[in-house]
Amino acid sequence: GVQTCALPISVSPRGPLDADERANIAVFHNASPSTVHITTLETQRSFFSPDVMQVPRGTGTGFFWDERGHIVTNFHVLEGASGARVTLSDQSEWKASLVGVFPDRDLAVLKIEVPREKIRPIPIGTSRDLQVGQRVYAIGNPFGLGQTLTTGIVSALNREIQSATQRTIRGLIQTDAAINPGNSGGPLLDSAGRLIGVNTAIYSPSGASAGIGFAIPVDEVNRVVPRLIRDGKFTRPTLGITSAPPQLHAALGLPKGLAVVGVVRGSPAERSEEHTS
Fold first, then answer.
1. Is there a catalytic annotation at residue 206?
2. Each residue of 11-40: pLDDT tens digit?
3. Is 233:242 a contact under the CB 8 Å cutoff?
4. 3-state secondary structure the chain
5. Of 76, 155, 190, 209, which residue is the catalytic one?
6. Is 186 in contact with 139 (CB distance < 8 Å)?
7. Per residue in 37-58, pLDDT tens?
8. Is 106 a catalytic residue?
9. Does the model's pTM come out above 0.85?
10. How far, CA to CA in Å, does 114 sit from each of 74, 142, 232, 265?
């Protein structure tokens, strides 16, 4: 019979990448070394051994906040874990220590002790001037499969969701950039590659991306994280009073203002009462 040569099909030439593609590549290239993969651990006892060991529990994403090795992620990524390991973009793995958490904003800070040259803090942007329609980028480790880049736009501003403590988190950025399990705690970036939010949750019956992702705005992150690094916690300012509901206020025909019906023991309000009595 006649033998035919198995030759590859000739390649069609293409022109240069367009500006959008080059911008996407640049954002990922610059932000990838700042983004880390987090594996949470839980303590288990083996059936066959009395030894207690830490085994993988879940995964999430985080990013370098500063040159000291602090890493920001979501509180719910770490919730219930007994420890965490951090994998950098060069695939090196490091044990992390917990610095502080603020569940009401679903934020947490870890720290790893690594050589300075391995630390790439992420550039910080602002969120108060965001506009619906501007481009955003999400970097994460969905399903623990390695770093991915997804793109989208700011879909809405000032959204609300429930935090892990059932408090309402207000002022969130909504985006249609695909955010899947494992993306939580990763950075949301603007087209200049600056951090504008921390990806925190998706609304989806299946757990997969449904085109609705949320991010904690960076202005809030920049308010909370320095306090977590300094104090290990974020304490809300409080007066320590209990006020009457608006309906009672109206029913009693009280003038405008706040009707105080109780003072919390040990609060600033009680101390103020002692000074004025």
1. no
2. 898 889 999 999 999 999 999 999 999 988
3. no
4. CCCCCCCCCCCCCCCCCCHHHHHHHHHHHHHHHHEEEEEEEEEEECCCCCCEEEEEEEEEEEEECCCCCEEEECHHHHCCCCEEEEECCCCCEEEEEEEEEEHHHCEEEEECCCCHHHCCCCCECCCCCCCCCCEEEEEECHHHCCCEEEEEEEEEEEEEEECCCCCEEEEEEEECCCCCCCCCCCEEECCCCCEEEEEEEECCCCCCCCCCEEEEEHHHHHHHHHHHHHHCCCCCCCCCEEECCHHHHHHCCCCCCCCEEEECCCCHHHHHHHHHC
5. 76
6. yes
7. 998 887 654 454 454 444 445 7
8. yes
9. no
10. 21, 25, 21, 45
The CA–CA distances, whole Å, from 42 to 79, 83, 211, 268 equal 11, 7, 32, 40
Quick check: is 10 catalytic? no
Q: Record the tokens describing residue 266, joined without a space.
A: 């040990």
The residue annotated as part of the active site, out of 127, 163, 184, 209, is 184
Tens of pLDDT along 246-263? 666 566 666 666 666 676
Spatial CA neighbour of 143 closest among 178, 168, 109 = 178
Per the structure block, which two tokens stand in for 22?
């080059």
